[in-house]
């Protein structure tokens, strides 16, 4: 078989395999259950993260966890797993209206990690601790 | 020169085994697969073999040129020296251990090898998640000593291919533990799950390719324990299934760090362990483990721990 034909056949094979995985319903629909779950996940992002406060998105798709030193960890559902970031200088938070609800939007500063939207209580508090310089300004 | 690539012949078996594992997963552990992750891993495998085709010729030419400086000579009919084959396999496996250890401890090599580790899932498709940038990272230098000893480059390629094929089946959660004698000598699903884990206890352990004895010998062995629920992937999970970012993220990271660092701190970003920074703003695996141990000590002072069985896989006595 020529190299090009072999490449096309292999490409077809991997697409079929991934499609089969999809059709079989593999993966799982994970959610962040509650604040304790979020705190545990934050400890997986930053080993030994002494969580003080946590807010979980209404649908359980994301969460924010804060420690006593004011550091904040963002956690999001990623496929059948979770993925998180310690929010640093490049991160910004803003509050906006979405279908009549006030939601918090976090930009980690990493394009491929993506923006994360959370439907949580008192989003302003989190805006203040994520970007203290911009406290009070809402997008 | 034998024009035979064992991996080409193994690919159909890989596909069948992935399908069998998917059927197992549907019934027992659907979360062990994630279709988008599977697609990324398989695309890694395809891209890696294309990269191998493009660069393989150059590596072979270099090896053949170096072969003339060999210390021992197996003669023109080197392939008929039967004992040279198993010897070459074992020494190549030792070479793989050295390569693999460097691949985790030197950021330059890690930038390529991280491709194999960036999935948060552990299944047979993860085994095919191979690097695209191994040639660029100069990974082939770890096989040069064997050529200089006197093993023919074709023999080294051949046994190396079998080593890679061996490593395929160990990427699964479907097998708990193998018989004791096997676990003692060979790399197994249980040992290699530890290698893919980000739990502090497991970081940078079990570098073996085929024989786990190298880890036992050089102090990098860690057995899988039932009290740890394994988390797979890398310390800073990608958070995306984007293929190109998954391939190049660490190279981009190196470039950014070297660019931003003051002159005298630039080069260490190439050869220091992943996570090293000149200002201590990130953590290496050693630092993470150190802090985890401190926390563990503090916690065990507080209470007598009862160890729960959090790892449903290690708890299995026999292969499922
Ligand atoms: Zn590795
Ligand atoms: Zn592996």
From TrEMBL, chain B:
The chain crosses the membrane at residues 6-24, 44-67, 79-99, 150-170. GO terms for cellular component: endomembrane system; membrane. Pfam families: FA_hydroxylase (PF04116). Signal peptide: none annotated. InterPro entries: Fatty_acid_hydroxylase (IPR006694), Sterol_desaturase/TMEM195 (IPR051689). Residues 86-220 form the Fatty acid hydroxylase domain. Keywords: Lipid metabolism, Membrane, Oxidoreductase, Transmembrane, Transmembrane helix. This is Sterol desaturase family protein. Residues 299-320 are annotated as: Disordered. GO terms for biological process: lipid biosynthetic process; membrane lipid metabolic process. It comes from the Bacteria. It is found in: Endomembrane system. It is a multi-pass membrane protein. GO terms for molecular function: glyceryl-ether monooxygenase activity; iron ion binding.
